[in-house]
């Protein structure tokens, strides 16, 4: 039986994570990037995001099969309690529950950090991604029509949102992921594999 694990990503994972991401850049409209990303730049993305939010990897026998992370939704201070989520699965590992497991752990961690709202921006049509987000209680907020140009066509971007808590009164300070209690983080990561 295969050994599965969800854990926090490290900079040493960048090459393996990027190997999953690159086909999304080069072959799909799921990513709006056009070109390959140099490894150093991709490592810097992981470092910058992981400073504040969880970046999780799902491994099977030590090999990364998928990853998910939350990142800053908007830069202005008043948006500090919102984040944006992303999940990418290795092509050979789709339809095995990896995205669901990653999202369960990811959303529990960001809720513990004090996040109120999670957003997902999806190039449509993308029935699989829309269904996954609806499964987690995301609702459609609106669409940016013909907002991105890739593969010789203008693309629409669906915005979905999920509320993690009621927005009454002033929010508390957002806790960086590395300041969450270590035992709590370990428990969450073990819970969903």
Automatic annotation (TrEMBL):
<dbReference type="GO" id="GO:0016747">
    <property type="term" value="F:acyltransferase activity, transferring groups other than amino-acyl groups"/>
</dbReference>
<dbReference type="InterPro" id="IPR016181">
    <property type="entry name" value="Acyl_CoA_acyltransferase"/>
</dbReference>
<feature type="domain" description="N-acetyltransferase">
    <location>
        <begin position="4"/>
        <end position="165"/>
    </location>
</feature>
<dbReference type="Pfam" id="PF13420">
    <property type="entry name" value="Acetyltransf_4"/>
</dbReference>
<keyword id="KW-0808">Transferase</keyword>
<protein>
    <submittedName>
        <fullName>Phosphinothricin acetyltransferase</fullName>
    </submittedName>
</protein>
<dbReference type="InterPro" id="IPR000182">
    <property type="entry name" value="GNAT_dom"/>
</dbReference>
